[in-house]
Specification:
Pfam families: Glyco_hydro_43 (PF04616). Keywords: Carbohydrate metabolism, Glycosidase, Hydrolase, Polysaccharide degradation, Signal, Xylan degradation. This is Beta-xylosidase. InterPro entries: Glyco_hydro_43, Glyco_hydro_beta-prop_sf, Glycosyl_Hydrlase_43_Enz. With about 350 residues, this protein is mostly beta strands. Helix content is about 0%, strand content about 35%. It has no helices and 20 strands. The strands form five sheets. It has a five-stranded mixed β-sheet with strand order 13-17-16-15-14, with no helix packed on it. The two termini are about 15 Å apart. The structure holds beta-L-arabinofuranose. The site of beta-L-arabinofuranose has 13 residues, from β1 and β14.
């Protein structure tokens, strides 16, 4: 880093910084990075991609991950440590397969790992596991979180200490099968197929004090256009697909997400964790590979985007996580990141 850090006070690392937009590790394949700073160290909670031999389909059956490994580093650009298995599907009593995108949180001496997996009936649920160490091993609760469904959990803790889980995803994430409040196995493999109706929404639920259960019935995370109208199901460039990640900057809540089949990262802003959120734009163009899923985290006072692509393998299901700076304009909008411009 000494060779690449700027001395002029510019918070943006130089364009030739070797760690920027490069795979953070070549030891294992990783995706969906949820990054946190705990006790001054950076911890990344990714999916752990494996070669499963399962053919690709629109439900993401090829993403047949079985466990989680945590990555950590003492600073952006520092040496990345790949920690041992933090949680294995065989140790989760309610889960059968597909350990997809996780997140983590810390409260009162305990680290919480939140993760989606399919139950024995093939329905995605969200579980929680705990540890005294940020890298695990984590012990799973015997049952999934009551009232949880779909995937891609993110736990956001507001400045007042209250934590909320954002979750959900369409297509393989099954949100379209919950459109009427309970699981409908005939609810389709993609979306509602009602392009002129409001799109399916991510969900939000406040967590109770135990951090292990919802304190309320999940609500819709509404995304509105500039005219205050809901984004429609047919608007694939702007509608929510998966990968919720909310952060707060000043008094503004940024709800960020993946547009899935149009392969972009998008954001919308609001004044409460519940929204509604007004669509503001995209902030990352399509990367190599089908999926895009990220986190936005402040490290040492600077904002970073953690994301993945398929640079190392060229295969959609063998991904590698990366990090790059995230830059805000004076009006709070986010500058577009082009993954192919270094
Ligand atoms: O990694 C499996 C799934 O692919 C994630 O849950 C989605 O967000 C997508 O990245």
């Amino acid at each position: 880093l000494a060779q690449t850090a700027r001395q002029d006070g510019d918070p943006t690392p130089p364009a030739n910084a070797r760690y920027l937009s490069q795979p953070l590790t070549s030891e294992i394949f990783t995706a969906d990075p949820s990054a946190h700073v705990f006790n001054g160290r950076i911890y990344i909670y990714p999916s752990h991609d494996i070669e499963s031999g399962v053919p690709d389909d629109d439900l993401g059956t090829q993403y047949a991950m079985r466990d989680y490994r945590v990555l950590s580093m003492d600073r952006i650009g520092g040496k990345v440590t790949v920690h041992p298995v933090a949680l294995d599907v065989k140790d989760v009593p309610w889960a059968s397969k597909q350990m997809w995108a996780p997140d983590a949180a810390y409260k009162n001496g305990t680290y919480y790992l939140y993760f989606p997996a399919r139950d024995p009936q093939g329905v995605f649920r969200i579980g929680v596991a705990t540890s005294k160490s940020p890298t695990g091993p984590f012990k799973a609760e015997p049952e999934a979180i009551r009232g949880s469904f779909s995937m891609d959990p993110q736990v956001f803790t507001d400045s007042d200490g209250q934590s909320y889980m954002y979750f959900g995803g369409i297509w393989g994430g099954q949100l379209q099968r919950w459109a009427n409040g309970s699981y409908d196995p005939n609810g389709g493999d993609t979306d509602l197929k009602q392009d002129d109706k409001p799109a399916l929404s991510a969900k939000i639920a406040r967590l109770d004090g135990s951090m292990k259960q919802f304190a309320e019935t999940p609500r819709d995370v509404q995304i509105l256009d500039q005219a205050g109208k809901p984004i429609l199901g047919g608007d694939h460039a702007r509608r929510f697909f998966e990968g919720s990640w909310t952060f707060k900057r000043g008094d503004t809540y940024y709800f960020t997400y993946s547009t899935g089949d149009t392969h972009m990262l998008a954001y919308a802003t609001g004044t409460t964790p519940y929204g509604p959120f007004t669509f503001r734009g995209h902030f990352m163009k399509p990367v190599q590979g089908w999926t895009t899923h990220h986190s936005v985290t402040q490290v040492g006072g600077k904002w970073y985007l953690f994301y993945h692509d398929t640079q190392r393998s060229g295969k959609n299901y063998l991904r590698n996580v990366k990090v790059t700076p995230l830059t805000f304009n004076a009006d709070g909008t986010i500058q577009m990141i082009d993954p192919f411009v270094r």
